[in-house]
Amino acid sequence: MEALSRLIEKAISVGLLTGFAVSRMASDPLLISHILFADDTLIFCEADPVHISHLRYILIWLEATSGLRVNLGKSELVPIGDVPLVEDLADILGCKTSTLPMKYLGLPLGADFKSLAIWNPIVEKMERCLAGWKRFYLSSGGRLTLIKSTLSNLPTYFLSLFPIPITVAKRMEQIQRNFLWGHTEEVFKYHLVKWEQVCSPLNNGGLAIRNLRLFNEALLGKWLWRYGVERDALWRQVVLAKYGSLEGDWMSRVPTGPYGVGLWKFIRGGWLKFSKFLKFEVGSGTRIQFWDDIWCCAEPLKALFPDLYRIACVPEATVADHMQVRGAAVTWEVHFTRMAHDWELESFSSFLEVIYAANITNRGMDKMCWLPSLGEGFQVKSYYQVLSPSRNGDFPWKIIWKSKVPPRVAFFSWTAALGKILTADNLRKRHIVVVSWCCMCKADGESMDHLLLHCSFAKEIWDMLFAMFGVHWVMPYHVIDLFACWPRRLGSLHRSVLWRAAPHCLMWCIWKERNARLFEGSEKSVIELKLQFMCSFADWMAASGPLGYSNLLEFLDLCSS
């Protein structure tokens, strides 16, 4: 491909071919004649029989000198705009013709970036992966795993280049929601937890399913980062030539004009939010704005000292304009429009402390740093995290998701911790008329906390569990409080594994028994339910890995030892 590139460049230099020019100023255009990607090549030239003939000769010379064969049968001539006699031009090359928009290397070429049609293959792929019939063969935990794997397998190059339309994002989120809760056109299922909560991080009580719109914004943010650091990249040179650059050359100017600005204008629109997470490391200081950029503290100096910024002689000055280097020492000369008043002396003193405390290397080029992951460069993951709504993060997610229990049980425990399982009180909140009594103790009204923790029927099983482990425990009022205060370690490592899984198994057995009584008309005694709990508990722990027991008696000994 290097040989082809040299041949095309030589042909352009002598006027046999012409590419196209990109520039805001006609005096200094950026000329582009061809783009190489692995074994594929895009060549730009005039729709002129003479130029097409020259291109044909270049391809023949390439075959003769390199021994490679150009497959013109798979090549296509694509006109841009109204080009007469396209078929005649294609005959000169011996190739086929095509039209824009088209698909090239898996991406739509020449299509409107806002078009819904370009997202149809992505939506269809998600519908196939999360087909309705699959939800009948998967537990809730299995459905959650499949949703996450489907998102990771989606073509992220679409999301990293095109802004996802709101209607497409809502459609894809609807597919995920319905699949997660088992909802189909034939079978109605309640969505127990709001989707915003589902998409939040684990420590905020969510399932860490990516919010598509925020993930799309984080992926597009990578282009903003790359513009600042990839100074020699061709795509950056095109954007720079077309729109120009801001002071410091970290970002282009805001695109204007009616043509060819839509996609980059959308990406560029995220710069204001993106730049809040940037910090600049001073080298020469020529590309860093003294007052506007973050370089010596956690905020721009104009935000930290607004009274001083208002009287600065040169508000748009760079760091280099105020920095004086004498040997290894760095001094600062910042000029203001007037002398300081008495009440401003403290601000001046703090200002000088801040700039003299800055670590200035005065070596090499200025660098752009990513604050959410300092020292590691830009990461889509870290940008997604700072874009996501933040909460207190005190949800007891580790005891729920890291315990050695089946995924469907962990999912049930998560739903219970949020207070969303469909007990009688929650059904009444959804305007469903039900008998509000507990079918286990037949004495009190049914609520989630009563059913799983305080019902006399459940209390006997909890007492047995605490006796098994030799623990004295005061039962909290809410399920989420139980998980929050449940100790993560209890004696040996193997015993701690059992202890962390115990509340999941107990509440799951109570829930299954409650449903059996309501919907199947069957009923177990307390003794039978205790035995079922111990057998299920032992089976789960045996399936999770070797814990040093071979029968139920050895299992009980391990719990109490």
What portion of residues belong to β-strands? 5-15%
Structural class estimated from helices and strands = mainly alpha
> What would the principal axes of the Cα set say about the shape?
extended
Order of the strands making up the biggest sheet: 1-2
Query: Would you count the extended β strands for me?
Result: 12
Return the average pLDDT rounded to an integer.
88
InterPro entries: RVT-Znf (IPR026960)
Protein name: Reverse transcriptase zinc-binding domain-containing protein
Pfam families: zf-RVT
Defining traits:
47% helix, mainly alpha, two-stranded antiparallel ribbon, 26 helices, 12 strands, extended, 561 residues, two-stranded antiparallel sheet
Would you spell out the secondary-structure blueprint of this structure?
Elements: H1 2-13, E1 20-22, E2 30-32, E3 34-37, E4 40-43, H2 49-66, E5 76-77, H3 86-93, E6 96-97, E7 102-104, E8 107-109, H4 120-129, H5 140-153, H6 156-159, H7 166-181, H8 195-198, H9 212-229, H10 234-243, H11 262-268, H12 271-275, E9 278-281, H13 301-304, H14 306-309, H15 319-322, E10 323-326, E11 329-332, H16 345-357, E12 367-370, H17 380-387, H18 397-401, H19 407-417, H20 424-429, H21 448-454, H22 456-469, H23 479-485, H24 493-520, H25 526-544, H26 552-560
Parallel strand pairs: 5-6
Antiparallel strand pairs: 1-2, 3-4, 7-8, 9-12, 10-11
Helix pairs in contact: 1-2, 2-3, 5-7, 9-17, 19-24, 21-22, 22-24, 24-25
Organism: Fagus sylvatica
Domain Reverse transcriptase zinc-binding: 378-462
InterPro entries: RVT-Znf
